[in-house]
Each structure stands twice: as structure tokens, then as C-alpha cells.
């Protein structure tokens, strides 16, 4: 199989084992062919059953957020990675962080690290958004308010009990711009606080309301 045939039979940069098998169905020993493709770098195994095209064959950059959804689920991108994605925090985040209603897990892969933090099912069900990709597929990511709520819930050691402490934490520890803070929706935050049953997120909703 030539590389051009491979890219014709695999429509996306990210693909599963069945798509890979279908693309080499004419080979008598498909497993040996897959091993050869991995060794040459034509394909990269992200985790068992999930692959991306190798760098030399890629037609476009692969989508890390989509991979995060596929590696472990049910999950959606949130926490530090989503805060930076939405432009709330300045630092680029190397690990793609997600929330899940399953067990907390971390995966190290050839294309980077992916971490998953368990949150209650009731909190998991609220505050996610679907982002459409140019090719018609989509991935799930927390809305800005949910990403921030997940982050402050996760940081149990912060010892936040007042609006003043929370305000300092947001501006100094997370380095959130005050203008971005004012842009959040306090009504959404209050709904998230209800699902989380969290006093700290309610404190955040009240703080944002006062900033507006």
C-alpha cells in the first residue's frame, strides 16, 4: 500500500483500529502490516485502538481536544486546558485536562499527556458545549463558567472561604484578567453551583455578579 492510498482510505487524521483494518483489508497479514506502518512512523498509536497519521502523511494538524474525548469517556475537556482554550488564562497548558464521571485517570501518549478528573454525575451533566470542526465532526468542551467551576472545585488546598480570598485566587493564582471575569455569566454559574451543590461556586457566581 502506498502512502497516497493510505491517506485516501483513512479520511481523518484521528482514527480507530477498525478504520485502520478496513484500509488494509487486502493484506494477508494485517497485523504485520500495522506493525510495519508503526515502525516507519506512517501511523502513531495514541493508545490501544486509537491512532493518528504520522507527521509526514498528515493533511492537517490532528485535534488534541477530539483525541481527549476519544481516549477515555464519557468525558469532556475542562479545567486548565479549557480555561486557556477560552482565553481566560494566559499560560499554554501542555496536558489536555478533562472531567469525567468515571474514575480519575492519566494517560501518557506519544502526542502528549491527557488527564481526567472525576466529578459527580450531576455536575458532569451541566456546562458542556459541542464545538464543530471544519470536517463535520465535533468535540465536547466545558463552557468557560464550567471550566472555572471545575478548576476551583479541584483546588481543594486553596482554602477559599470569602469573596475577597476567591478574587485574589482568581487574579493572582489563575491570572485571570478582570475583564474576562466580568464577561462570565453569573446565572450559568449559579446553575452550575446548584448541580455541584458547592458553596465555593456559589461564591464565584456572587462575585461575578458584583463585578458587572
Structural summary, described in words:
Strand 8 and strand 9 (138-142) form a beta hairpin. The protein has 212 residues and is an alpha+beta fold. Helix 5 (79-85) packs antiparallel against helix 7 (144-154). It is elongated. The N and C termini lie far apart (60 Å). It folds into 2 domains: 3-57, no CATH class; 64-211, no CATH class. Helices cover 45% and strands 20% of the residues.
Keywords:
four-stranded mixed beta sheet, 2 domains, 212 residues, alpha+beta, 11 helices
Weakly predicted, low-confidence segments:
none
Counting helices, strands and paired strands, the structural category is alpha+beta
Average pLDDT score:
94
Count of DSSP-assigned helices: 11
What is the 3D shape? Answer: elongated
> Which range best describes the helical content: under 10%, 10-25%, 25-40%, 40-55%, 55-70% or over 70%?
40-55%
The fraction of residues in strands falls at: 15-25%
Number of strands: 9
| Spatial order of the strands forming the largest sheet | 4-5-7-6
Tell me the radius of gyration. Answer: 20 Å
Distance between the termini: 60 Å
Amino acid at each position: 500500500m502506498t502512502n497516497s492510498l493510505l491517506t485516501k482510505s483513512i479520511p481523518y487524521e484521528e482514527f480507530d483500529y477498525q478504520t485502520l483494518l478496513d484500509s488494509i483489508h487486502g493484506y494477508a497479514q494485517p497485523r504485520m502490516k500495522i506493525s510495519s506502518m508503526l515502525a516507519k512512523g506512517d501511523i502513531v498509536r495514541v493508545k490501544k485502538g486509537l491512532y493518528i497519521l504520522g507527521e509526514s502523511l498528515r493533511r492537517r494538524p490532528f485535534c488534541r481536544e477530539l483525541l481527549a474525548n476519544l481516549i477515555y469517556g464519557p468525558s469532556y475537556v475542562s479545567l486548565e486546558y479549557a480555561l486557556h482554550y477560552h482565553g481566560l488564562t494566559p499560560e499554554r497548558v501542555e496536558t489536555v485536562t478533562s472531567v469525567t464521571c468515571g474514575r480519575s485517570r492519566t494517560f501518557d501518549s506519544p502526542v502528549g499527556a491527557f488527564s481526567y478528573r472525576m466529578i459527580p454525575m450531576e455536575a458532569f451533566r451541566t456546562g458542556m458545549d459541542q464545538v464543530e470542526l471544519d470536517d463535520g465532526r465535533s468535540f465536547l468542551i466545558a463552557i468557560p463558567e464550567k471550566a472555572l467551576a471545575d478548576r476551583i472545585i479541584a483546588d481543594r488546598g486553596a482554602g477559599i472561604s470569602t469573596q475577597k480570598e476567591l478574587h485574589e485566587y482568581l487574579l493572582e493564582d489563575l491570572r485571570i484578567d478582570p475583564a474576562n471575569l466580568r464577561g462570565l455569566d453569573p446565572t450559568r454559574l449559579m446553575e452550575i453551583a446548584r448541580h455541584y451543590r458547592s458553596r465555593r461556586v456559589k461564591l464565584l457566581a456572587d462575585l461575578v455578579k458584583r463585578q458587572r
